[in-house]
């Protein structure tokens, strides 16, 4: 029988209380949201927190909304941002009309995350903070160049999602901090897509790629690529994005970007396949995601 080690249980009723409990119990405390990653690790005793702080009552972190951002930028963003609360369930993201209006990548990624039971309980913040190298939403937010909003007793700070993960199962969120939400800029003229290969429905990815392409007069003014399960640093490949900007999204330019992703990723051989196979998949999936993103941008679709 798999039984976790003993622990103290606390339930927070506000963000402030959650932060105070984290400060009280120190680095051996863990936040409990959906629990689909933490609880199995506790049963196997791969994780042995001394205190669990349940944050399921924090309704203020369960929302998807359009908010004023940091102002218009040179790429034509209107300054608005999509704010997705850390306690938002995967199923809510999947069904959100607001997210679908701006980025279809969200629904396409959520549709292939685990199964309905997990999606109904698992949370956006839990997935990002677990920092699993094969996690889908980490690749999505890296592609979209989102930023994390983090709270501590000293105030609030923001961190680009491309700097959020320090490595496998490690993030920049401190011992007495909590992820509040993730923000993604609204980009007029952008299309997005997500591609994933898995051994069976609901499995971790063998390889996955997400992308957005923003066009102006048929030319790429901005692009983002997110990669999961293939050892890409910070879940992305900025060198590939650089070759797309200022060019039309032709088959040749997309193939060049996909080849760079293939060469820059660092997959490991495991039961899901050898390294060469995963590199090949990366190239194929990036090509598909960029191609579909460009077509959607050209057609005025998200």
TrEMBL record:
Decide whether keyword Plastid is in the record. Answer: no
Lineage: superkingdom: Bacteria
Taken from the record, one Pfam family name reads CO_deh_flav_C
- Domain FAD-binding PCMH-type stretches: 2-189
Question: SMART domains of this UniProt entry?
Answer: CO_deh_flav_C
- The answer to whether the entry has keyword Flavoprotein is yes
Keywords, sorted A to Z: FAD, Flavoprotein, Oxidoreductase
List each coiled-coil range.
none
PANTHER family named among the record's database cross-references: XANTHINE DEHYDROGENASE SUBUNIT C-RELATED
Q: Could you identify this protein by its name?
A: Xanthine dehydrogenase family protein subunit M
Q: Which organism is it from?
A: Acidiferrimicrobium australe
């Amino acid at each position: 029988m798999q039984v976790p080690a003993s622990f103290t249980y606390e339930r927070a009723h506000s963000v402030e209380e959650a932060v105070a409990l984290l400060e009280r119990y120190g680095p051996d405390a863990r936040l409990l949201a959906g629990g689909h990653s933490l609880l199995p690790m506790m049963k196997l005793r791969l994780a042995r927190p001394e205190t669990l702080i349940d944050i399921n009552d924090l309704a203020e972190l369960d929302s998807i909304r359009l908010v004023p951002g940091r102002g218009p930028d040179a790429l034509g963003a209107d300054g608005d941002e999509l704010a997705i609360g850390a306690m938002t369930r995967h199923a809510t993201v999947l069904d959100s009309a607001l997210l679908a209006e701006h980025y279809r990548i969200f629904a396409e990624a959520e549709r292939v995350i685990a199964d309905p039971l997990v999606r109904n309980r698992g949370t956006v913040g839990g997935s990002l903070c677990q920092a699993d190298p094969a996690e889908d939403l980490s690749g999505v937010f890296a592609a979209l160049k989102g930023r994390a909003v983090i709270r501590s007793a000293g105030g609030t700070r923001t961190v680009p999602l491309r700097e959020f993960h320090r490595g496998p199962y490690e993030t920049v969120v401190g011992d007495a901090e909590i992820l509040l939400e993730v923000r993604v800029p609204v980009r007029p003229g952008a299309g997005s897509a997500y591609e994933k290969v898995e051994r069976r429905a609901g499995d971790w990815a063998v390889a996955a790629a997400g992308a957005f392409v923003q066009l102006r007069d048929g030319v790429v003014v901005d692009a983002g690529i997110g990669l999961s399960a293939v050892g890409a640093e910070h879940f992305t490949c900025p060198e590939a994005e650089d070759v797309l900007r200022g060019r039309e999204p032709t088959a040749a330019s997309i193939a060049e970007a996909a080849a760079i992703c293939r060469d820059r990723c660092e997959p490991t051989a495991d039961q899901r396949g050898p390294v060469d196979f995963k590199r090949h998949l990366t190239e194929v999936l990036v090509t598909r995601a960029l191609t579909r993103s460009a077509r959607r941008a050209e057609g005025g679709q998200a």
